[in-house]
Amino acid sequence: MHVFQPLPIDFIEINPFIKISKEWAIITAGTKVEANPMTVGWGGFGSLWGKNAISIYIRESRYTKEYLDKSDFFSLSFLPDENHNALSVCGTLSGRDSNKWEESGLTLNSRLGIPFPDEAALVFLCKKMAVVPFSKEQFTDSDICKKWYENDDFHLMYIGEVMDVMAR
């Protein structure tokens, strides 16, 4: 088992159009004792308000939203290919009904009090800066609502400042 090493943010070379949407990631919020991991496939990296920022999108109905709302921090983690099954488990099961840590085979770890899966290859530790809800009235492209929000279960955009990056 390799130890996590700090990774300066200017050393990161990823394709932002592939990293989250095709490889998926795990968003984790909560405490170092109790946290909920959830697979995400929508998000972004960039600069916002003079800070290195990550945005993630979580539906109102998701259990992880409760953890995100109670916490000032969250992590965005990328797993190696051999953990693809864990991404499926964390994307299909609800933490309301099951222990996703046990079911996925992932191990809860934390740094700076921010939880993340120990099996990750790359971890972004983030401080929540803003939560922006979406509503039907905000969309200028009506096809988006027809395709993605037929049941009015809209996403909230969580924007976090990248506090630390770790890699194996």
Succession of helices and strands: EHEEEEHEHHEEEHE
Radius of gyration: 15 Å
- Measured distance between first and last alpha carbons: 9 Å
If helices are DSSP runs of H or I spanning 4 or more residues, what is the number of helices?
Answer: 5
Mean pLDDT: 94
Q: pLDDT below 50 for ≥5 consecutive residues: which ranges?
A: none
Main β-sheet description? 8 strands, antiparallel
Q: What portion of residues belong to β-strands?
A: 35-45%
Indicate the percent of residues in helices: 10-25%
Number of β-strand runs? 10
Q: Which geometry do the CA atoms define?
A: globular
Structural class: alpha+beta
Q: How would you describe what is shown here?
A:
The structure is a single chain. Strands 1, 2, 3, 4, 5, 6, 9 and 10 form an 8-stranded antiparallel β-sheet that branches. The N and C termini lie close together (9 Å). The chain is built from 5 helices and 10 strands. β2 and β3 (35-40) form a beta hairpin. The chain has helices at 16-19, 63-70, 84-92, 100-104, 142-148; strands at 5-6, 25-30, 35-40, 43-48, 51-59, 73-78, 108-111, 114-117, 122-133, 155-167. The chain is globular, with a radius of gyration of 15 Å. It has 168 residues and is α+β, with helices and mostly antiparallel strands.
